[in-house]
Design a protein that fits this description.
33% of the residues are buried. Helix 1 crosses helix 4 and helix 5 packs across helix 11. The protein folds into three domains: 83 residues, Winged helix-like DNA-binding domain superfamily/Winged helix DNA-binding domain (Arc Repressor Mutant, subunit A); 99 residues, 3-Layer(aba) Sandwich (D-Maltodextrin-Binding Protein, domain 2); 103 residues, D-Maltodextrin-Binding Protein, domain 2, CATH 3.40.190.290. Strands 3, 4, 5, 6, 8, 9, 10, 11 and 13 form a nine-stranded mixed sheet that branches. A two-stranded antiparallel ribbon has the order 1-2. A two-stranded parallel ribbon has the order 7-12. Strand 1 and strand 2 form a beta hairpin. With 295 residues, it is α/β, with parallel strands linked by helices. It is rod-shaped and about 105 Å long. The chain has eleven helices and 13 strands.
Length: 295
């Protein structure tokens, strides 16, 4: 068996050209250095130094020295990386988020985190609620930003923090609904053409289901596909505000206010498996994500 103190002594004797100078450099007595070299020679199966008035490497010593130094360098690098990981400067980050929150919430948080922690390896996945639960259950991600409460998954989850966002009816500026300052519920059902029914929670919201039943045409469709249709001027739909926030800011979409329709909200949460270890890097990212969510 070889030990790091033996490799360190071998490297130092080779650098200093003598056991006495190596002992001084290592802060040891010469007998301790000699004992370490003898033990290392026994491990490698041969003499590493020619002893005499001048210490020289043997052929075995010359061939073994680069590997000994490489081993020491790898260990030193490992220690440095481990210390950085303890303060969140190295390590890995594995997160998942609903597609409707990945851009407006996770995106800015990740940009800020990566800027300040460039050596942390980041993996981000997005998809629907069911995928979030699968990734958590399989241990593929450490945290997920998904709908809350998760309900019916059978998975024990802990909410780190929760978000509450509006769900609003939007349409393109030229759409008949968007031309009015406020519309009646019956007008939504009549003029949406079609009313796009999106599953932004575990199941369709009952208010939107009732509107869809009253409408002259409704389409059940994925949220990103629905967003493209609405941007193109086809139909109207109720979207989580964060998914279309940029479109609202830029004027590509407009919020349609519906008189007599109670406000609709979606609750989501950043969740994790209870008792799962949390690395310093993950804890740092959660702090950034919490600040972005509050904004």
């Amino acid at each position: 068996m070889m030990h790091l103190d033996q490799l360190s002594a071998f490297d130092r004797v080779a650098r200093e050209g003598g056991f006495s100078r190596a002992a001084v450099a290592l802060g040891l007595g010469q007998p301790a250095v000699s004992a370490r070299i003898l033990a290392l020679e026994e491990a490698v199966g041969g003499t590493l130094f020619e002893r005499g008035r001048r210490i020289r490497l043997t052929a075995l010593g010359e061939s073994f020295l680069p590997f000994a130094r490489r081993a020491l360098e790898v260990v030193r690098e490992g220690v440095a990386v481990s210390r950085l990981a303890q303060v969140g400067e190295r390590g890995s980050l594995r997160i998942a988020a609903l597609g409707s929150l990945a851009g407006e919430v996770v995106g800015p948080a990740l940009a800020e985190f990566v800027r300040d922690h460039p050596d942390v390896e980041c993996t981000v996945k997005s998809g629907n609620h069911e995928l979030m639960l699968e990734l958590l259950a399989d241990g593929i991600v450490d945290v997920a930003l998904t709908v809350w409460p998760p309900g019916g998954s059978g998975l024990d989850l802990q909410a780190i923090f929760k978000l509450r966002e509006r769900v609003i009816l939007v349409a393109a500026p030229a759409h008949p609904l968007a031309r009015r300052k406020e519309v009646q519920r019956a007008e939504v059902a009549r003029l949406a053409r079609p009313l796009l029914r999106l599953r932004w929670w575990r199941s369709h919201h009952p208010l939107i289901t009732a509107l869809a039943d009253e409408s002259q045409g409704s389409v059940e469709i994925a949220m990103e596909t629905a967003r493209r249709l609405v941007l193109a001027g086809t139909g109207a739909g109720f979207f989580p505000e964060k998914l279309i926030a940029e479109d609202l800011r830029g004027g590509a979409l407009r919020e349609v206010r519906v008189r007599g329709l109670e406000p609709i909200f979606r609750e989501t949460a950043l969740v994790r498996r209870p008792h799962a270890p949390m690395s310093p890097a993950l804890a740092s990212f959660i702090g950034v994500l919490r600040r972005v969510a509050k904004r």
